[in-house]
Design goal:
alpha+beta, two-stranded antiparallel ribbon, 6 helices
Length: about 210
């Protein structure tokens, strides 16, 4: 699960936009692309699509839609979904979610009660970490049970409680667990892979964050 905070999403968007404007300004001045600055500022839509699709298996990614969050925190579709899955990047977390999961994330961001529908999300690149006790936390604190999970699937919907997964605040992210237990946003985190290759991919994804 990504850290979900609408205000942060919006302000990150604004920062990204400012970066793009600065980069474009620079380019028009020098007529020289500042590759480093541009990469840091924002991915092109094509780059974004390619990156977002890496969260799902190839067969799912092939027909998945891609959405991008704009500077106002609104979701913009870059590519239509042909299989019900939508891939997106949220605060550095890459995921491909079905419609029920998208509704769940939307409710989480708006702090509303999520619909009680089972949903499936792929996060095969792992995540950047989240507080396991505070869905709105944006960073690690000494007592917010920060947890970083490698490549995983997520299952959302109240029914996941029937899986009987560990629901302690301090979870072991190498095994299935319930994230945000005891809240309406509890969902199953199911690690997949675990091979050296997967671990490397997850570490690379984490390292790219800052
Ligand atoms: Cu996740």
């Amino acid at each position: 699960m990504p850290r979900l905070n609408m205000f942060l999403v919006a302000s990150v968007g604004v920062l990204i936009m400012m970066g793009v404007v600065a980069a474009q300004d620079q380019m028009s001045k020098d007529k020289m692309p500042h590759k480093m600055a541009a990469q840091k500022a924002e991915l092109s839509d094509a780059q974004y699509i390619a990156k977002a699709l890496t969260a799902a298996p190839r067969g799912v990614a092939k027909d998945a839609g891609v959405a991008r969050i704009d500077k106002d925190g609104n979701m913009k579709s870059l590519r239509e979904s042909k299989n019900g899955f939508t891939c997106l990047i949220m605060l550095g977390d890459i995921m491909c979610a079905d419609a029920n999961s998208m509704a769940f994330f939307d409710a989480t961001m708006k702090k509303q009660t999520p619909p009680d529908k089972l949903g499936l999300t792929y996060m095969l690149r792992g995540d950047q970490g989240a507080s396991n006790t505070d869905p709105t936390a944006t960073g690690k604190t000494p007592d917010n049970h920060w947890i970083v999970t490698g490549p995983h699937l997520m299952i959302v919907g109240a029914g996941v409680k029937d899986l009987g997964l560990p629901d302690s605040a301090d979870a072991d992210p190498t095994k299935p667990y319930l994230m945000w237990p005891g809240t309406p946003y509890a969902h199953a985190m199911i690690p997949v892979g675990g091979s050296a290759a997967h671990a490397t991919a997850a570490n690379t994804a984490s390292a790219k964050k800052e």
